[in-house]
């Protein structure tokens, strides 16, 4: 039975080769699907995955986008059924298919990408970082800065992300937005608990942006100083430092309404701040003060100072060792 099965597959492969040589792509596509069915039944996953990848690339190279994308989807199904775990090894291949589908075939491309990211989400809510890095580079080459940035934020490539942001800011942004482009990226990395990439992105951006060329304070732009101090505070996990930073840089933080939301989540992730119980609470600053004063109650038996006194005292203590704008 096994020998008969092998002979049957060999005949299909021979027909497939002849169909491709003759330019009969429809017949070739049907042959690939036949092989897919047979290989799945025989659990020849390794052979099947390579066959589908090569077939997808072949069709895409001759501008048979629909057939190529279809084989790409069958490849992802094969990866799932074979319980393939090596996302890093397959990410460049899946990205190659994605690139060859091209931006003009939006429906096929988006569907393929969704399935690829879904498959790569093994132990990572946001998908495999290597896959996102590969996809980001493709979008960048196509000058699709928004999508490139989206995928870089889900990668671990801080250097690549920073260089993209510099080009994005210089070609599409205003001069006054030099600090805004990096601020949102750093805060989003931190909201995803990706502290190391946030640091790498900030350092690379400030070192290489022609309007900055510096990676340590004092910066001319207050928001950059805030980000630098924030990254240090995240590393030490000192709530009082974080609270003072947010207080001292309120004007910079208020430049974008999203910053408050990001910082609220960062406070919960890195500083153990509890989410506000009421929607009409004092917001981030009120919540920070409440958590900080709660910590003082736990750590000291002395008389609890008034909120305004505690805030001023803490500010002076931090500012003695740290210069803030």
Explain what this protein looks like in three dimensions.
With 325 residues, this protein is mainly alpha-helical. The chain has a domain at 36-120. Helices cover 74% and strands 0% of the residues. Helix 7 runs antiparallel to helix 8. The relative contact order is 0.05.
Largest sheet properties:
none
Please provide the ordered H/E string of secondary-structure elements.
HHHHHHHHHHHHHHHHH
**Stretches with pLDDT under 50, minimum 5 residues:** 295-325
Radius of gyration using CA atoms only: 27 Å
Rounded average pLDDT: 85
Number of E strands: 0
Index terms:
0% strand, 74% helix, transport, cytoplasm, disordered C terminus, mainly alpha, elongated, Golgi to ER traffic protein 4 homolog, 325 residues
Give the arrangement of secondary structure elements:
Elements (H helix, E strand, L loop, with lengths): L1 H20 L3 H18 L2 H17 L3 H17 L5 H15 L4 H15 L8 H13 L3 H8 L5 H15 L5 H14 L3 H14 L13 H15 L2 H10 L1 H4 L3 H15 L11 H17 L7 H13 L6
Helix pairs in contact: 1-2, 2-3, 2-4, 3-4, 3-5, 4-5, 4-6, 5-6, 5-7, 7-8, 8-9, 9-11, 10-11, 10-15, 11-12, 12-13, 13-16, 13-17
GO cellular component, one term: BAT3 complex
Protein name: Golgi to ER traffic protein 4 homolog
Subcellular location: Cytoplasm, Cytosol
């Amino acid at each position: 039975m096994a020998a008969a099965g092998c002979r049957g597959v060999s005949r299909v492969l021979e027909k497939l080769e002849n169909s491709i040589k003759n330019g009969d792509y429809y017949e070739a596509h049907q042959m690939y699907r036949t092989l897919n069915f047979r290989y799945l039944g025989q659990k020849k996953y390794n052979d099947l995955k390579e066959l589908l990848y090569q077939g997808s690339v072949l069709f895409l190279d001759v501008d048979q986008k629909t057939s190529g994308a279809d084989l790409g989807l069958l490849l992802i199904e094969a990866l799932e059924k074979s319980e393939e775990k090596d996302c890093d090894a397959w990410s460049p291949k899946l990205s190659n298919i994605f690139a060859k589908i091209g931006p003009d075939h939006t429906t096929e491309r988006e569907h393929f990408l969704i399935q690829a990211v879904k498959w790569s989400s093994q132990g990572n809510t946001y998908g495999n970082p290597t896959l996102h890095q590969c996809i980001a580079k493709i979008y960048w080459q196509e000058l699709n800065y928004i999508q490139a940035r989206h995928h870089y934020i889900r990668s671990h490539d801080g250097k690549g992300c920073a260089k993209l942001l510099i080009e994005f800011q210089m070609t599409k942004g205003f001069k006054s937005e030099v600090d805004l482009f990096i601020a949102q990226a750093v805060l989003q990395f931190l909201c995803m608990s990706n502290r190391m990439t946030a640091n790498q992105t900030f350092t690379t951006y400030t070192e290489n942006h022609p309007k900055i060329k510096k990676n340590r304070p004092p910066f001319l732009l207050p928001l950059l100083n805030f980000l630098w101090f924030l990254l240090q505070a995240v590393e030490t996990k000192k709530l009082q430092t974080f609270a003072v930073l947010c207080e001292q840089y309120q004007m910079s933080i208020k430049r974008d309404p999203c910053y408050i939301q990001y910082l609220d989540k960062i406070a919960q992730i890195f500083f153990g701040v509890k989410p506000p119980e009421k929607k009409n609470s004092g917001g981030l600053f009120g919540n920070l003060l409440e958590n900080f004063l709660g910590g003082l109650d736990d750590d000291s038996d002395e008389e609890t100072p008034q909120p305004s006194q505690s805030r001023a005292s803490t500010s002076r203590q931090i500012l003695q060792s740290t210069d803030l704008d």
